[in-house]
Amino acid sequence: MGEEEGLHQTQLLDTMFVRGLKRKCFDGEEDIEGTLAGFKAIPSYNLQRQSLLDMSLVKLQLCHMLVEPNLCRSVLIANTVRQIQEEMTQDGTWQMINTQSAGQTSLDRLVSTDILCRSSKEQAEGKLVPVYSTFTKDCEGTQSQDNSEIMSTVTSPQVPKNLQSNMWEMENPQENRGNFQKSLDQIFETLENKSPNTVEDLFSEVDNSYYDLDTVLTGMMSNTKMGHCDLETFPSQTSTNSKSNCKSDLNELDHIVEILVES
Amino acid sequence: MAGAGGGGNDIQWCFSQVKGAVDDDVAEADIISTVEFNHSGELLATGDKGGRVVIFQQEQENKIQSLSRGEYNVYSTFQSHEPEFDYLKSLEIEEKINKIRWLPQKNAAQFLLSTNDKTIKLWKISERDKRPEGYNLKEEDGRYRDPSTVTTLRVPVFRPMDLMVEASPRRIFANAHTYHINSISINSDYETYLSADDLRINLWHLEITDRSFNIVDIKPANMEELTEVITAAEFHPNSCNTFVYSSSKGTIRLCDMRASALCDRHSKLFEEPEDPSNRSFFSEIISSISDVKFSHSGRYMMTRDYLSVKIWDLNMENRPVETYQVHEYLRSKLCSLYENDCIFDKFECCWNGSDSVVMTGSYNNFFRMFDRNTKRDITLEASRENNKPRTVLKPRKVCASGKRKKDEISVDSLDFNKKILHTAWHPKENIIAVATTNNLYIFQDKVN
């Protein structure tokens, strides 16, 4: 995104961080206009901190895969994430997270960076399934169609609303944070291994979704990770959950990033 | 000395030249990534993202009409580094030139070191202005003559030709860095040099390419514990056993190579205690040092972090002796700058020849100079608008908040895509080279 755009979008966060200024947190699209009309409330520090944490985790994920990611930048961002985590631990907010059950299957989980941070190993083990159950059910019946189209129609009405409500809703902070601990650990793990292979692992599912069989065969993948796109492991067009999961990953990622960086 | 113009000893900076494409559409390969004057100041080298090095040479002054100093014109252009592919890691190795350092001139040829992320090369730049003519067996165009037509014997003679500048790689120092090289620095012994990446520093001999000595290694045994990286390193200008390296946590370590082979234990640690009133989640990021430069005298060193320039006395470790705010008005914008990654921009800094003024870049194509004696500072802009030679540059001012005066620019209208990361100051004269994204500006002081 353009830097001017970026500045504008996070001007809200700037003022929140520096002066604790005058905007209500979002409850959802329909509430915004009502609240902007003269409502002045100081957003909670926890909210500010949460949004910084989200931003940092997104940054750690979205590094360039063509060239080795900038180590200095990654280390600085990871240190920032650790700092927030430590503070949240001291606050006691982190303890609330530990008590969350892992069995959430609602779209709430999409809010978290669980998706963003998931390693390929975990996906292979099928831990993805509960979260994506909604989506896979929908796409199983219509495999002849373009899966991405289905994914986007399924996700677009639901995800933004839920994401927004979960990201910004003050009453339900626990659900949001519930998933961060796990995701943070994964982040640290991947960063800490520090070899691009690990970062590679992190992205392997996402990467796969970019390439269909045709692309692979025509050898258009001049960048990254041929190793993870073996023809043997590649699902055919008419299969199955793994491919649709890949595509849904991609669309969810898009949606999440879109929402996280929008004010 | 730099001042706001007018009166006494203040310098008035004037536009001299601009190099590079005019259009706003910047080709990625043309982005300038390093700028460096040689030891005499006669040559000015730039490196770009496409792996090319362009060297400019200053014209000899017109002795009669010394209204201005000689202009810089292209002297040599060559492809220093090519893009590579690391097959083991499935990653590209960028050809972008990270640093250029000149060797002092020992004979007719010039030598420089240029480096990308992984490989350092020693280049010889030599002139050829004569060529032999009158061979016995060859025609002038090089074709061999039919031996039966050779009836006389003659001695070839050298005749003048158009000047040709040739660059040839003399040494290639490769495969010594796992991480990305951020600095190279030539020792005052002129025989060795150091190269630093994110976690290690290596010592090389200029003649030996198959071996280097590791002198600093901060890689933790368990990479999970990594929290700090090396950001810059430089040899002391006079003491051949001393060098410094800066870190992402805002510390500078001075090491003495006589103490031990592996200089993991510093001789001195320079660190300023944090100001608790300014503490935020971004404190560490903005304290990360992007550049460290010794003064020419060797008594001081300068560091650049995101918002300020600090001068350290080598004899005092607990705080800098001088601190200059480059763009303090950005402190309230740190979250935005974090979001758009600008907070990770690595600005460089430089000293003038007499160590009395320091210079560094900022955003909106602004650059700043701080006079250490008068404590005055000035903000100037590198833009094609002040295009005429000998036009005095108008000082600029950024308005942080509140009412904007005429000619001031508000923080919100700064263009963060226009950043000046690389600047260089002629070692002897008041001539500066300032690199915007893809243009090189040369300014000099007004000669009356």
UniProtKB/TrEMBL annotation, chain A:
Record's signal peptide: none
Residue ranges of domain SERTA in the record: 45-92
Any GO CC annotation of this UniProt entry: cytosol
Name of protein: Cell division cycle associated 4
A Pfam family per the record: SERTA
UniProtKB/TrEMBL annotation, chain B:
Coiled coil region boundaries: none
Family annotation (InterPro entries): PP2A_PR55, PP2A_PR55_CS, WD40/YVTN_repeat-like_dom_sf, WD40_repeat_dom_sf, WD40_rpt
Alphabetical list of SUPFAM superfamilies matching this protein: WD40 repeat-like
GO molecular function: enzyme-substrate adaptor activity; protein phosphatase regulator activity
GO (cellular component) term, any one: glutamatergic synapse
Keyword Zinc: no
Keywords: Repeat, WD repeat
UniProt GO BP: regulation of chromosome segregation; response to morphine
Family label: Belongs to the phosphatase 2A regulatory subunit B family.
Name of the protein described by the UniProt record: Serine/threonine-protein phosphatase 2A 55 kDa regulatory subunit B
Species per Swiss-Prot/TrEMBL record: Gopherus evgoodei (Goodes thornscrub tortoise)
